Amino acid sequence: MGSPRVRDDLAQLEPYDPDMRAVDVMLSANENSFGLPEEVRAAVAAGLADAVARAHRYPEATSPRLRELLGAQWGVPARNVVVGNGGDELIFNLLLAYGGAGRSAVVCPPTFSAYALYAQLTATQVVEVPRTAAFDVDEGATLAAAEGAALVFVTSPNNPTGNLADPAFVRALARRTSGLVVVDEAYADFADPAASCVPLVAELPNVCVLKTLSKAYALAGARLGFVLAPDAVADALLAVRQPYSVSRFDQAAAEAVLLNRDALAPVVARLVEGRAHLTGRLEALCAQAAPGALRVYPSSANFVLVRIDPSGGLPTADEVHEALARDHSVLVRNFSHTPGLEGCLRVTVGTPQQNDLLVQALRSVLGLVPATC
Ligand code: PMP
């Protein structure tokens, strides 16, 4: 008997390997580098202790308390909030509900790889509308492509480039298509609040906003994402979801963090300051390299993208990525093999100390000397 035959269209698929090597300075997964403040940890621990006492019972499938808390915070009724096992599961569920054979989803690469992966799993055709040289959405081409699509993914801020999408453009997009416009705001807590598309959810029947507690809320380990959606979209997502995908422990941790969210605001503010500081220091490195050999892109998220051009005498992005990890125990994400991101590394904003270590390590690996004054 041979091995059972996997679906032909998935036969070449490889397991996702995010490269989580153990290092001293972990700047590769866009997590909250500060972690949960002490008082929030205590609240999470108390919530988990209660959950342990009820561990033999299934979790509440409809997460009523959590959806109330999320709805109250983002100004939408609880019935318009759908939770999932991380934003990842919700992207899959969106494609399950609205994609499928004979349907298409528009994506704007370079962007988060999950949209194309889950499109493939659900046999949804992917229509790519590449971003401009500055990584902005090509608005005209996206509007045109959206017309016949079942879904359009707009990531704001975009991962891994940090660009925002204009809410006025998203409104125009939603008016142009009868498909569902999914605005992925996983990193919006680090951006100008005026750039959020949450107000469009109440205004338009085909806009939903995806968010997560994995980034600003420092809860990547618990897996809690959510979608703010108009009634019919929320109902469709509730119908296709696995009822118990958000465990009792995930729900308890998320509730504790949301009830104590005031303690996280200063942490987010420090990361936003850290982004400006890190960008400035990286720009100073760029000035030490040959003109154009090293670039740092502006970002509205908790990471920045750096591009290395080895023709200017610098090592390649692959070499820099490896040397940072091997010689300095600093892990960043290597995007240099992704189309449109040749030579690019993505650096998560760290604590001030981690940012210092990263800049020193990068300077040494790139062979740049500090400017003398
Ligand atoms: N959207 C974007 C743009 C992301 O970068 C991520 C995480 N890398 C997610 C959604 C999903 O995050 P999570 O599954 O941790 O909620």
Describe the structure.
It is a single chain. This protein has 373 residues and is α/β, with parallel strands linked by helices. Helix content is 39%, strand content 14%. The protein has twelve helices and 13 strands. The chain has helices spanning 38-53, 64-74, 86-98, 114-121, 139-146, 167-176, 198-203, 231-240, 248-259, 265-288, 317-328, 352-366; strands spanning 25-26, 81-84, 104-107, 125-128, 151-155, 180-184, 207-212, 225-228, 294-296, 303-308, 330-331, 333-334, 344-348. The protein has a seven-stranded mixed β-sheet with strand order 2-8-7-6-5-3-4, with helices on both faces. Strands 9-10-13-12 form a four-stranded antiparallel β-sheet, covered by helices on one side. Helix 4 (114-121) links the parallel strand 3 and strand 4. Helix 2 runs parallel beside helix 9 (248-259) and helix 10 (265-288) packs parallel to helix 12. The longest helix is centred in the last third of the chain and has 24 residues, at 265-288. The radius of gyration is 21 Å and the shape is globular. The mean pLDDT is 96. The chain binds 4'-deoxy-4'-aminopyridoxal-5'-phosphate. 4'-deoxy-4'-aminopyridoxal-5'-phosphate binds at residues 30, 86-88, 112, 155, 159, 184, 186, 212, 214, 220, 225.
